[in-house]
């Protein structure tokens, strides 16, 4: 097995900045949701802070995959993409709504996640050489 190509430091850094940015966006979204629930303008079953903490963890799966897909070695990368893809599909479908915008976005997400899973499943170590 040949060594993996070393990832350019600029690519690593820019990818990490994407991860940071995505987390900042979602942190703001979760804060807004908590505020809306606390002002009784939005209803979420259960403790809103706990629900948003769980959402933050699950949402970080695809966010972290932006970076991990670039840096993990073949075997870990392949299986992490498959498992993360499956968990993310469950999150997207399970946490969804029937609002038209959500159906459109969720459909696109599920199709893309399916493509990720299929590509990771078909990925052979020979593709790295």
Describe the structure.
With 129 residues, the protein is an all-alpha fold. 76% of the residues lie in helices and 0% in strands. The chain folds into 2 domains: 7-63, no CATH class; 72-129. Helix 1 (9-38) runs antiparallel to helix 2, helix 2 (48-71) runs antiparallel to helix 3 and helix 3 (74-94) packs antiparallel against helix 4 (100-122). The longest helix has 30 residues, at 9-38. It is globular, with a radius of gyration of 17 Å.
Secondary structure elements and their pairing?
Layout: H1 9-38, H2 48-71, H3 74-94, H4 100-122
Helix pairs in contact: 1-2, 2-3, 3-4
What are the key terms here?
single chain, about 130 residues, mainly alpha, 2 domains, about 75% helix
In brief:
By secondary structure, this protein is mainly α. It has helices at 9-38, 48-71, 74-94, 100-122.
What's the overall geometry?
A: globular
Number of helices: 4
Radius of gyration over alpha carbons? 17 Å
How widely separated are the two ends? Answer: 7 Å
The portion of residues assigned to helices is over 70%
How does the major sheet shape up?
Answer: none
Q: What is the residue-mean pLDDT, rounded to a whole number? A: 85
Query: What is the count of β-strands?
Result: 0
**pLDDT under 50 segments (min length 5)?**
none
Strand content: under 5%
Q: Give me the secondary-structure category.
A: mainly alpha
In N-to-C order, the SSE pattern is HHHH
Total number of distinct structural domains: 2
């Amino acid at each position: 097995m040949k060594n993996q190509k070393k990832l350019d430091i600029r690519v690593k850094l820019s990818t990490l900045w994407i991860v940071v940015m995505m987390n900042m966006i979602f942190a703001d979204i979760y804060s807004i949701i908590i505020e809306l629930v606390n002002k009784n303008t939005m209803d979420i079953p259960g403790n809103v802070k706990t629900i948003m903490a769980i959402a933050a963890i699950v949402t970080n799966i695809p966010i972290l995959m932006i970076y991990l897909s670039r840096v993990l070695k073949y075997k870990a990368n392949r299986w992490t993409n498959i498992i993360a893809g499956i968990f993310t599909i469950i999150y997207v479908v399970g946490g969804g709504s029937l609002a038209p915008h959500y159906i459109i976005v969720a459909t696109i997400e599920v199709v893309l996640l399916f493509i990720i899973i299929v590509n990771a499943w078909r990925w052979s170590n020979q593709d790295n050489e």
